[in-house]
Amino acid sequence: MTPHINAQTGDFAETVLMPGDPLRAKYIAETYLENVREVTNVRNVLGFTGEYKGKPISVMAHGMGMPSISIYAHELINFYGVKQIIRVGSCGGVDEELKLRDLIVATSASTNSAMIRDRFAGYDYAAAPDFELLKACSDAAGGLGLSPRFGNILSGDLFYGSNPALLPAMQKMGVLAVEMEAAALFAIAAEFRVKALCVLTVSDHLITAEETSSEERQTSFNQMMELALETAYATTPEMAAA
């Protein structure tokens, strides 16, 4: 066990889906996984392990912000042998063509945080997902009849308030959306040589001011969850024979 996860060795599958919200983790586990069991609940940050189409998959919340996901991802990778993490989260749309509930798959994650520089000797690290997961996600989207947007996002430190120059800068550079975790996840995955991906649903829009409810964010972003699960299924090894 770690200070933040009370699971036992072997409780987590090699592939973990990570939403921010513990209730979304619970919803994914109960809706899509078979033979599910709760494996951690420290601070009510819930984690579950089960099977998706016969393959072992875990789901665990990561909380809000880059410090929070950094703690949980580090412990999952270094203490529980997790090999790939797929973040499934909400984001604020920046691109004017995006609509509420549109899907985004991050091909890179810019950031206004100094956190990644701390890992990279003060320089700017290009935080990006694993190509195998990215390709598997693209293939899975085709199989599900989905058309997510693939592109750059921004992982921000602030939920309320920001530099007023940031929004026009994101628009100028073609940033699709803003969220708060992906850059840190990609950097940690690179450091420890594991795989990471980020699949998002547009929950609100910074230009139009449209937004979804907190309940919708917990339980109605099913296309994102199904895309992440199919990606996980395509890249997760078969279960060992008993």
TrEMBL record:
Its EC number is 2.4.2.1. The active site is at residue 204. The record marks 217 as: Important for catalytic activity. The keyword Glycosyltransferase applies. Transmembrane segments: none annotated. SUPFAM superfamilies: Purine and uridine phosphorylases. Keywords: Glycosyltransferase, Transferase. InterPro entries: DeoD-type (IPR004402), Nucleoside_phosphorylase_d (IPR000845), Nucleoside_phosphorylase_sf (IPR035994). Coiled coil: none annotated. Residues 16-228 form the Nucleoside phosphorylase domain. CDD domains: PNP_EcPNPI-like (cd09006). It catalyses: a purine 2'-deoxy-D-ribonucleoside + phosphate = a purine nucleobase + 2-deoxy-alpha-D-ribose 1-phosphate; a purine D-ribonucleoside + phosphate = a purine nucleobase + alpha-D-ribose 1-phosphate. A purine D-ribonucleoside binds at residues 4, 179-181, 203-204. Phosphate binds at residues 20, 24, 43, 87-90. Catalyzes the reversible phosphorolytic breakdown of the N-glycosidic bond in the beta-(deoxy)ribonucleoside molecules, with the formation of the corresponding free purine bases and pentose-1-phosphate. Belongs to the PNP/UDP phosphorylase family. Homohexamer; trimer of homodimers. NCBIfam families: deoD (TIGR00107), PRK05819.1 (NF004489), PRK13374.1 (NF009914). This is Purine nucleoside phosphorylase DeoD-type. It comes from Pseudovibrio ascidiaceicola.
